[in-house]
């Protein structure tokens, strides 16, 4: 198993971010319309190949009940098809409240390399950068989705308040 420890700082409040994160993971897991065909993605340059495009692998996310006190949720990510040919990630998404003005999203765990010895060799020489980059992009995508969800919710509350009292 290859260890992964990623984090992404944000200016979003911790508790709201965790609630949004859990809702988004549930939607991806169910395959809701907005997340239909969700895929991990990375530029080919992450695999030390010519930077002529991007690789994208549709994935299935399996999650377990959240620990709301620790702001942590266990997840597994695997290819939606041909699971034996792609790494499988097992770990956790969590949110730590760093200060009153923001939090940090964490993705910690590891991924199993497919194809035994050949897979380990390919991972060491070529694919490691690609697998980690897809997880970095996943964390970035989650942060952006949390931001959109929280900001649109705040706008809706403000609009409701203005029309009710205006």
Compact summary:
By secondary structure, the protein is α+β, with helices and mostly antiparallel strands. The chain has helices at 14-30, 116-165, and strands at residues 2-10, 39-43, 54-63, 72-79, 88-99, 102-112.
What order do the helices and strands come in, and which of them pair?
Blueprint lengths: L1 E9 L3 H17 L8 E5 L10 E10 L8 E8 L8 E12 L2 E11 L3 H50 L1
Antiparallel strand pairs: 1-6, 2-3, 3-4, 4-5, 5-6
Task: Write structural notes for this entry.
By secondary structure, this protein is α+β, with helices and mostly antiparallel strands. It has a single domain (2-152), classed as Alpha-D-Glucose-1,6-Bisphosphate, Chain A, domain 4 (2-Layer Sandwich), CATH 3.30.530. The chain is built from 2 helices and 6 strands. A 6-stranded antiparallel sheet has the order 1-6-5-4-3-2, covered by helices on one side. It is globular.
- Described by its quaternary structure, the protein is single chain
Please report the total strand number as a whole number: 6
Q: pLDDT average, as an integer?
A: 84
Query: Number of domains in the coordinates?
Result: 1
Report how far the terminal alpha carbons are from each other. Answer: 58 Å
Measured on Cα atoms, how large is the radius of gyration? 18 Å
Q: Biggest sheet: strands, sense, closure? A: 6 strands, antiparallel
- Strand numbers in spatial order across the main sheet: 1-6-5-4-3-2
Strand content: 25-35%
Question: Which descriptor suits the 3D outline?
Answer: globular
Top CATH class: Alpha Beta
Low-pLDDT runs of 5+ residues are none
What would CATH call the homologous superfamily? START domain
Helical segment tally?
Answer: 2
């Amino acid at each position: 198993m290859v260890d992964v420890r990623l984090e992404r700082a944000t200016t979003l409040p911790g508790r709201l971010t965790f609630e949004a994160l859990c809702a988004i993971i549930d939607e991806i897991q169910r395959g809701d319309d907005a997340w239909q065909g969700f895929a991990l993605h990375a530029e080919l340059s992450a695999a030390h190949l010519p930077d002529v495009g991007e690789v994208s692998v549709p994935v299935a996310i399996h999650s377990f009940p959240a620990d709301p006190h620790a702001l942590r949720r266990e997840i597994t990510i695997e290819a939606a098809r041909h699971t034996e040919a792609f790494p499988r990630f097992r770990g956790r998404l969590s949110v730590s409240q760093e200060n009153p003005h923001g939090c940090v999203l964490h993705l910690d765990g590891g991924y199993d390399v497919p194809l035994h010895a050949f897979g380990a060799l390919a991972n060491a020489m070529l694919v490691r950068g690609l697998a980690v980059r897809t997880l970095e992009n996943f964390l970035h995508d989650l942060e952006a989705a949390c931001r959109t969800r929280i900001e649109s919710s705040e706008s809706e509350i403000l609009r409701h308040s203005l029309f009710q009292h205006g």
